[in-house]
Design goal:
Distance between the termini: 24 Å
Strand order of the largest sheet: 1-2-5-6-7-8-9-10
Strand content: 5-15%
Helix content: 40-55%
Radius of gyration: 18 Å
Number of helices: 15
Number of domains: 2
CATH class of the largest domain: Alpha Beta
Number of strands: 10
Structural class: alpha/beta
CATH architecture of the largest domain: Alpha-Beta Barrel
Shape: globular
């Protein structure tokens, strides 16, 4: 497969990638304890090799992002990406007891409008503000055409099976949209056990018609991630947050098999459309599977 053979759909890009964040906002986010701890731990070795101090770590990510929607659309044209998904990205700081990142429904709607059909909007969920969040989800879908919700259990400290998450699932079923949420560990110092994919098991039984997308590969519980996707008809997986070249072999094998080929979608987590697509194309899996993962599965799951 060549790079331009498939017009891909990035099912987990980031609003920041479209140039929505100012330098001041980047710096403010980077002062959060979780961000500073991540650059000293998870990403410390990389920054040290680059000669970048932890307090300047934001510059590395910001430099990979685009300065505007127009610049992002240009890259999409150059590497064959038809659509990207962006959401409110509601992530909680356990240390500071406030949202570490958060975009409003209106900000996401503005990106969708500027994208002229190529940016797909998604809502977020704050289990500390259930009523307000559900109103935003409904407004995003009904007023602005949002197609999904993305939720970050690790930072809020609630397992996917927690009662505080159930109102979200009911609302997603009512609106007929997928609920996406992070599974696996977190790069930041957040409780990893909360992200075990197995916590989707009971949810899938309580909400048999709920479409769930387990993002971030579920690592280090890859077997649980695969099990949930294999076991439940409406549970899917997203490989975003890892460069395809860094995916663990069981994940690649699953993507190359009869179940994974129809139930896994591609996402970048804002790590770069060009690199992430090139590396996916280069994976040792069947070309027809690559096409499904890069495009076809997303169309079916999100009703595009």
């Amino acid at each position: 497969m060549e790079l331009m053979d498939v017009q891909a759909i990035d099912t987990m890009c980031r609003a920041g990638y479209a140039g929505i964040m100012t330098e001041a906002e980047w710096k403010e986010m980077w002062q959060m304890y979780e961000a500073q701890a991540a650059v000293k731990g998870t990403f410390g070795g990389v920054l040290k090799k680059m000669g970048i101090a932890p307090e300047d770590g934001w510059k590395v990510i910001a430099s990979q992002y685009k300065s505007s929607v127009e610049e992002m659309l240009q890259e999409m044209d150059e590497v064959g990406v038809e659509k990207v998904f962006v959401d409110q990205q509601l992530i909680w700081s356990r240390r500071h007891h406030k949202l570490a990142t958060a975009f409003s429904v209106e900000q996401i709607a503005e990106l969708v409008d500027k994208g002229k059909g190529r940016i797909i909007g998604g809502a977020g969920y704050n289990p500390w503000r259930i009523e307000e969040s559900l109103r935003d989800v409904e407004r995003g879908v009904k007023e602005f055409g949002f197609k999904y919700v993305w939720f970050h259990p690790n930072s809020f400290g609630f397992k996917a099976s927690d009662a505080k998450c159930y109102p979200l699932y009911a609302k997603c079923v009512e609106l007929g949209i997928p609920c996406c949420f992070q599974t696996g560990h977190s790069a930041e110092p957040l409780p990893s056990e909360i992200g075990r994919p197995m916590y989707a098991d009971e949810v899938a039984m309580d909400f048999p018609n709920l479409v769930m997308v387990l993002t971030h590969t579920g690592w280090p519980w890859i077997d649980e991630w695969i099990s949930m996707i294999w076991r439940h008809p409406y549970v899917y997986g997203n490989i975003g947050a890892y460069y395809p070249s860094a995916l663990h072999q069981p994940t690649v094998d699953f993507m190359n098999g009869p179940i994974g080929r129809t139930k896994v979608v591609w996402g970048t987590n804002g790590f770069g459309l060009t690199r992430c697509k090139k590396e996916l194309v280069e994976l040792p899996i069947r070309d027809d599977n690559k096409k499904r993962i890069l495009r076809d599965n997303a169309i079916e799951i999100f009703k595009l």
